[in-house]
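User: Some background: our group keeps a shared notebook of sequences we're curious about, and every so often someone picks one and asks for a predicted structure to add to the entry. Today it's my turn. The entry only has the sequence so far, pasted here. Could you supply the structure so I can complete it?
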Amino acid sequence: MDTESLHLSMELVSGCGLNPEQSAALRTSLRLLQRDMRLSRVFFWGKILGVRGDYYIAQGTEGGEQLRNRRTFYSLNCLDWCLLSPPTDDVITGTRFIEGRFIGDPSHEYERTVRRKAGEGPGGYEEDVTSHVKEESRLIATIALIDREAALAPRGAFTQNPLGQVNVNHSFRGLTVSEATKLSSFFHLTPTLAPKKKSLLEKADQDPAIDFLDSLEHDLPKGCWSLQCERGSSVVVLRSLLWLGMTFYHVPLTPQHGYVYIGDGERNIDLPFMI
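Assistant: Of course. Here's the predicted structure to add to the notebook entry:
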């Protein structure tokens, strides 16, 4: 959610989980963060709930590019922000074993012990190998996974130029009400997903400048998104059932849209049994 429209956006997303003091602090601190880090755009990404404290997440972009080289920050008090390192496959893989809620302390270490075979031949034996992973690494991996699987944008909100750069489409005036009620009108806002193969008929009906992302209509399992029209169809709200707490909104016939995640940072692995 953009800093400039944070207050209005929070009103459109019910149950946002921020009190007035936190919202006011975020609006001020995010403007300072944008100035100090010399970012072209800063938006509030969401809040990951912990046992002892919560993580407030913001993301920023440099120049016109909106997807590549995004910078992610976290705060424990809505005022002071720390820069997170970019996610890597090793970090994401190394934190998959962690279960349960976040603690709320970036320096907290999770311990994992596995048995590995040492030596070869008859003299081989098994030994316990213990590794430690900091919660900050888990935070990096969780944000990357949620971005990959649940960050959204309406069709036409972003454009891709011949050089592959993704920019905000300033000509976007919003979806119609009928378009906004279809999952095919919303795209995953991430460049990390492998593009799905499309038939020639599908390609003929698409514009490569705006249809360069994957739509939600092919997401598995079927039914992993809840689409609702609220306030007399004046707002369309999409909620992820895979990442409970991810909420996206769009006001039809206007360029206003955004998403926010407020949850415990755990994937809903029971979803296939719920739908």
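Suggested note for the entry: The chain has a mean pLDDT of 85. The chain has one domain: 6-274.
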